[in-house]
Amino acid sequence: MPANLTPAYKAAEERYRAAVTPEERIAALEEMLSAMPKHKGTEKLQADLKSRIAKLRRAPTKKPDTRGQSHRIPKEGAGQVALVGPPNTGKSSLVAGFTHADPEVAEYPHTTREATPGMMPFEDTAFQLVDLPPVSEEYVEGWVFDLIRAADLVWLVLDVERTLEGLELVEGLLAGKGIALVPARLASELAEGAGVAEGEPENRPGWAYKETVLVLTGIDRQDAREDLPLLERLIEAPFPRVAVSSVTGEGIDALGRLTFDALKVFRVYTKQPGHEADLDQPFTLPLGATVEDLARLIHQDIADGLKFARVWGKSVHDGQRVQGGHALEEGDVVEIHG
User: Fold this and answer.
1) pTM of the model
2) What is the three-class DSSP state of 283?
């Protein structure tokens, strides 16, 4: 019998892979166990998860290491985006311009020494940007690579006038740490262990294949716009890309849409029986998520008591009654009944 693992299980599995501490691993494993369908086809997997949880709980407690604790950034919003790039490419200016965060911005290299998170609004939701210290040949703190691995998406931020050398530098340094920046299609195929086309990266055990959006900064500078057509022909990496300016705001809307789509999430709205829908604060879910996944996201008790739901949306009749396994779509309004 196939396991038919849910999107919620797969999301928890990704959190387990990115976990740093035993506590984070236990929490992710417990979430995987909770999200797993309970039938004969998953009995062995259930037993394996329970065994791993028990083993982690029996492990001796190590003395807490206070170094780098501030660099574990809890995820918020529709997804976490790590800003990666060489010195002086404008990463901190983007975070300062697009969010309410206040990273240090200066014209000299290596201004950023800490990870600085901030929420970038997009329509009626937001995703989390994390400004990181630059990737350079001089020195990179080890925790920077840990945060890149844990992020849902990477913005590869390069100055439009130094794009090619910056791209080569970053890809080379990340490869030395077992991290490859790849476009969306390839990231999914490598994660699933599928074969890839000739000339593309192989699926190497232990490597992190991070879906990447190429962000070209400095488009507001004189002559920079004229360089774009030539640059487009020279860049071999098939990343989705957008040119932006933190000074004029050009490209922000396009970058927001590109980022939201790359995160592979969608929005649904909820309503209470007899009341209007709450269209101000959507829930974001991974593509393919179900009514049961939404209920679990709201609260486990709601998921446990779920009997059925009514859904308003493009793929259903208004108020259509559905069960917990019904797959939701962008813009659906859901009324949960327990």
Assistant:
1) 0.72
2) strand
